[in-house]
Structures are given as structure tokens and as C-alpha cells.
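Below is how a single chain appears once it has passed through the pipeline. First comes the sequence as given, then the structure the pipeline wrote out for it. We keep one example in the README because the format questions we get most often are answered faster by looking than by reading.
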Amino acid sequence: MDILNAAPTNVSRRGFLAGAGSLVLATSLPVRPARGQEASDAPAVQAFMELRADGTVLLKSPWIEGGQGVYTAMAQIVGEELDLSPEHFEVEIAPPGGPFGINGGFRITGGSASTRSSYTLMRRLGASARAMLIEAASAQLGIPAADLTTEPGVVVAPDGTRLGYGELASAAMDLPVPTDVPLRDPETFRYIKAPTPRIDVRAKSTGQASYAIDVTVDDMLLAAIRHAPRLGLAPDAVTNLSEIEAMRGVHSVHMLDGAVAVVANKFWQAQKALAAADITWTEGQAKWPMPADFSSARFRDTLAKASGEVTPVESNGDAASALDSAETVIEATYDAPFVVHGQLEPPSATARMNDDGTLDLWLPNQAPEQFVGRAAEVAGIDGSQVRLHSQILGGFFGRHFLYETANPFPQAIKLAQATGRPVKLIWSREEDFLRDAPRPLGLARFRAAVGPDGPTALNVEVVGEGPTGRWYNAPAGRDPSATEGISGKPYAIANTQIGQLYLQNPAVIGYWRSVGHSMHDFMYEGFLDEIAQAAGLDPFEMRLKMLENSPRHHTLLQRVGDLSGGWQPGPYAVDGVQRARGVAMASPFGSEAATIAEVSLDLGTVKVHNIWTAIDPGQIVNPAVIEAQVQSATALGVSQTLVEELVYENGEPTARNFDMYPILRPDQMPDVHVEIVESGAEMGGVGEPGLPTVGPAIVNAVAQLTGRRVRSLPLSKHDFG
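Resulting structure:
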């Protein structure tokens, strides 16, 4: 990744903040030491970091904040090397382009990659600034730089003289950026690895944080939209158009691609008018038209019966021969349903076409540069004429990627062009459910040869399509989103064959928290328990045996066992009620996770009492954020395991709001116990790895308790009475 070779650059004298007395650092790609004065041929860039005269820092985060705590992590990392407390940092989302496209001209906030991919760069940024401040103090005091040190926010001389960073910023801005600045010894860390409070908590808890739905622009109109009931239909007519146009506050009515929009002075005026609109629909054009007879149940059957070329993904030994010669072979088919994102903040976008032909766009997103390119296409202008104002996200989960039919900003742009005024378009919850890009319905077929010590051979065919194939053209067999959680497992099995049978999904699919891991680990770990049962082995002990040559995983499994008070599968009685436990492991996004779940039955439904998770992200920045992320991921993991399912019938989702799409209730939330195991391996992600193990651990516990093996989620489809 280009980011790993990035180096800080001094841009204080490039004309951005001349005379402001601030030390301004950005990055240079490729590495090129430079003085600001000598950089006249450098591209115009904006600052990553501005150390201001009052001693505070404005940090432009290349990553979008959506509740995962990346603002705090960036402040901790830079602050550690700069020697400045994170509480003195103001962090905001960086604009598109410039030095912020640090993955080679673009960036994506996703895949639990933000902190781990920018960790070294942000440390260099802070270390370079600290070295420059020491150099400025050295010149001012006439003392060798080697004799100076720092304490938080100040440079300290041997005689006790203290110079604040703010008073040194002006002098430091003239200095070259040093190369090869040493980074701190982790043993001396003050902020990294500390449970630092989130720096955005106050703004969010007092209502001061501004989201896309809060954006206000002068002379702005508000718009609501009604989409065609299934993708591929187009509006034919609004038969009571004159009545709608005459309603209070209504500015205009617009026929868009697959939708009708009403623009009004207020959102609820637009929404009320739409509710009264009599719209007729006709067959139209769409890249992925939804078949009128499409149903999720029928599609599941199609996946189960699919045949054809299976593209190899992972192979070891000779699984086919081992299966043919085995005395005991078991097989099973697992599936998991479509699920929506259901983020708290419904989608919205504000667009303003300016007199000079430029476009200002305010919207939530996870990939700014991609949104700029698409917005330029929609508006018919050059990308340089688009100013994107990224907003913090009122819910993440993979909802804010560039999905061709699931984002409101193209509609907002068209409405702004049509009305000649800024327009904020808000999708209602019903429209979000209708046009969301859900996690795909997934299915996998398993066969295993079973010996006395466990599996001797395993063959898995993953049937379907992943979102990376859909949106980034990853071919079958090389689309990790289609097979992750089934491929890449650490267990020692002598003969394995894993492949993908590609079958396009009629629905417009998207990424969902932990992506393929969110369903595939349920499938793999569930089948692994079936193998243990067939071999007459304890599932926990069998896993330990299969991990003997992988110390990191072996240790993690032991740690979660200890965390739970010692592995005991059950059933066993607690207060007269039978309970049982299940175990599962996953290797998502550079991290490792192991979970034990404890369940019982309550009037025939599954109740989850405890979730114990040991997570090993290799290295950590903020243990408090990691624990919060595991808690959050656990809630979502329990929710999708127990109750979540988006059902399609006649080409339409049957649920249009949470009344028909249940999510986890507060009384269903288990107690969550987290242990962070820092193995020292390369840093992994933390936003998603807490989710994949939750489902299989619960399902395996249910099997221990009831003797019934569930191979299709959610559990609410099954009666355990």
C-alpha cells in the first residue's frame, strides 16, 4: 500500500496559512524530503495536521467517523509521537483527494482497515512535528536539540525552561521536515494502548454533532421520494398531479429514474404530498431489474440445486480421494438470509449547483473519491468541479458505499438542477428498506470425511455472489467477500478443497458488517461441530487438537475457555433452567476471535445469557474502543442470529420498516465479557471481528442443548418448544 511509504511534508509556506503562525504538515507520495519554500512545483495539498498558535491541533482524518472511534484513534496515534494529549485535538473528516487519498489516490473506510493501515504514517506525522518543534526550541534557546526533551504540549530544557508548542509553531513552520525520525519505544507509550475517552462523545451526547440529515443550506428546499415497488419499474404518470402540486408548501413534482420526488418548503410537506400521490408504474430500464416473480425462498432453492463449474479458492492435499475412500462421510447445506443495514440515520443528501457550474454535495459516505467521480457523472461536470462535504455517519455497517441504486445523492443532484435551488433529499425508512443493498442470501454445501480424531477431508462449495464481485469486478474464486469465513480457516485438516460456484444474485447486494464472515463462519463452525459429533469428540477439545501447530489460535481458544470460567458444553442447570454452551472461532480482517455462548430455551425460543469473546488484534491502540466495538458487534451478531431476515416476495421486500423486520430487543441482549489478547502480530481490525463468532457459538450451544442442528438462520424460524 502506498500509505506505508508516505512521509510527512511541510506545507506551511505553500500559501495555505501564511502568517497564521501554524505548523502545517501533510504527506508526500512518494517519499521526498522537502522544504516548504522549495516545493513550488508540488501539487496543491491541504494539511493533514495543523499545530495552531494556541497549542491545539486540527487533524484531518482520512477516515470517516461513524461511531467506530477512528477520530480518537488518530488523535492518540499522532498525539503519542507529538507528545500532546488527545484532548487537545480537533478532528474532522478530510476532503477528497490531495494527500488524503492515501491508498493510491482513493480511500475506503471499511474492512476494519482504517487504524491499522494508517498507524505508521500517523506516528511519523506526530514524530516529525515533535522533532521540528524541538529544533525550533533549540534555535531559540541556543541549546543543542539533543539536550531538549518534551512533556505533553511543551519542549523542556535541562534548566527547566519550558516552551509551549503553540509559541514554537511559527518558528517550526520554516523548518524542513526531518527524515528517518525515530519513533517512540512502545514501552514508553502514554496514549497508545490507554483506554482514552472518545473525543467526540460530548458533541454527540449533547446534540452538537451534525449529520447529513442535519445539513442546512441557504435557500434550501426539502424533498421526499417514492421508489417503484420493484427495481426495473418506472413512473408512468401521477394521475392527480394538479392536486399534489396545489398542496401546501409543494414546490414541484419530478419524475426520476424509477421514482417520483416531491420538492417542498418542508420535508413533511413533501412526504404528505407523496402519500397522497396516485402513481402508476410501467416497465422501465435498470441495470439489475428485479424479476417480478423473485422470492428469497425460491432463490435459496435455486442456490441449493445449482450445478456447474466450481472455481477453486483453496486446496490442500487430495480431498476428493480422501472422501471417496472414507468409511464415514457426512454432508450438510447451510444458508443465511438477506439482511438489511437498518442504520439509525436514514439516507439523505444535499446538493447545490452553483452559478459557476460547480457542485457542492453534503452526504454520508465511506469512499469520498468514488462519490466525487459518480457525482460528476450525474451532474455532467468534471470531478474538479465537485466539492464533497463528507458527514459523520449515523450508523455504519457498510451502508454508505457507492451502490448504484441505493444512494440518494444522484436524485438530489437532479432535483437541484431541475429547481435551480439547493435541495436536501431524505429517504424515509420505508424507502431505505426498499432500496437498501442488503447482505446477500448465502449458501454453502459441505462434505467431510470423519475419522476418530476429527476431519480427515473437507470439501466446501460456496454458491452465489459476493459484493466485491458485484461492485469491483472481482472474479469468482478471487472474491474474498464470497468465501471468507469458509476459506482461510486455521484448523489443521490434511485434505481440503474449497471453491465458489458463481451464481448472480437478482437483488442489488452490498457489504454488511464483517461481510462474508457474518454468515460463512456460522456455516463452517456449525459444520465443524457436526464433525465433532460424528467423531464422538468434544467440539472444544477437537478444535484445540486441530490448532496445536498454530500457537496464536491455540492460545486464544484457551483464553476464551478461561474467560468463561472453564469450558463446559452442557446441558447443565442454572436456577433450575437447563443451559448449554457453544464455541466458535474466526479470523476476520487481520484479527482473530474466539467466542463461547451460553443459551437456554424460554417457551420454545432461544435466550442468550452470556457471550464470552477473546479477541486478538495483534496490536492495540485503545482497549476501551476495542471492547466497545466487540460489544456492538456482539449485539448485531445476536440480532442477526436470532431474528433478522429480509424476505422478498413478488420482487419486493415484505418488510418496509422495523414493524415487519424485527431486531434485537433490549431484553434479548446477553451479558458480554471481553478479553483482549495482544499477541504482537501485525495489527488487525477491530470494528468487525467481534461479530462472526457470535452466530455459530449460539447455534452450536442450541445443538448442545436441544440435540437439533440448525443450518438456516435466523433461529426465530425454528420452533424449539
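Residues 3 and 627 are 27 Å apart (CA to CA).

See the next section for the split statistics.
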